[in-house]
Amino acid sequence: MADSTEVPETARGSGERVASALLGAPQGTYARVRDGFRAYRMIAGMWIRSTMAYRASFVMTTFGNFAATALDFVAVLLMFSRVDRLGGYSLPEVAFLYGVSATSFGITDLVVGSMDRLGRRVRDGTLDTLLVRPVPVLAQVAADRFALRRLGRVTQGLLVLAYAIAVLDIDWTPLRVLMVPLMLLCGAAIFGAVFVAGGAFQFIAQDASEVQNSFTYGGTTLLQYPPTVFAKDLVRGATYVLPLAFVNWLPGLYVLGRPYPLDLPTWIAFTPPLIAAGCCALAGVAWRAGLRSYRSTGS
User: Fold this and answer.
1) What is the pLDDT of residues 249-296, one digit of tens each?
2) Of 128, 132, 166, 193, which one's alpha carbon is 20 to 30 angstroms from that of 273?
3) Rounded distance between C-alpha atoms, residue 104 and residue 272, angstroms
4) How far apart are the first and last CA of the chain?
5) Model pTM?
6) Which residues contact 130 (CB under 8 A, 6 or more apart)?
7) Alpha-carbon distance 268 to 179, whole Å?
8) Distance between CA 36 and CA 19 in Å, rounded?
């Protein structure tokens, strides 16, 4: 077994420094973010071109992804074939919560769904090749094996959301209308922060991808049902510990005109942008800490 050696600090930070030097940009947060988006776009574009070279395969895998995720909503329909309400919520109301959760998660899974592969790169030493490239490591990991077939999940979530909006009997005020796209964007950002934080944890525990999936895939499954069907301790955990409730429960119940089980004030429904920003900031701190703690396999 190869001895574990530490990657020098100069090697770990070389990506951002070289990228900025090549572009003639000063060091700073803006330059790093810009370089990261540029690198992500180029890597994702490469994988998209590779995917579209086999269009029949792309169509079949996208449809397969759509069908597989649609089974989740089929399970909801089967429940409502036996009961009129689930936790006091009608089918359109549950479909609304489901659609927001599935679409938000689908967007995140499309953009950064490859983060769960990081542990494998740490184990086999291929992460070292990303460290010496002149682009941010996070952009490379997130765009690695960009899978356009994941649009099937997004499409399925949007269709359920469109159905719910069409049949819901609520007063669509301008504020409620604005809340829907805001929920999707903030929800995607919150899920993205969980993905990145989970990736950072894999620097320490390389076999932790399933732990990450329990919070990401498990989280979206949790949010597809109304909070009233769960124990209050679980709802508190999803509100105060891992704030997944801000994806669709809190703002969604405002749109539906429903009270929140924890008797929180109404204005809390308008805080998802702040929560999303805070989650992304914390995920960034966790990522940098994980990257600094990385030790090369020496292979």
Assistant:
1) 999 999 999 998 898 999 999 999 999 999 999 999 999 999 998 887
2) 166
3) 13
4) 9
5) 0.86
6) 15, 121, 137, 140, 141
7) 13
8) 9
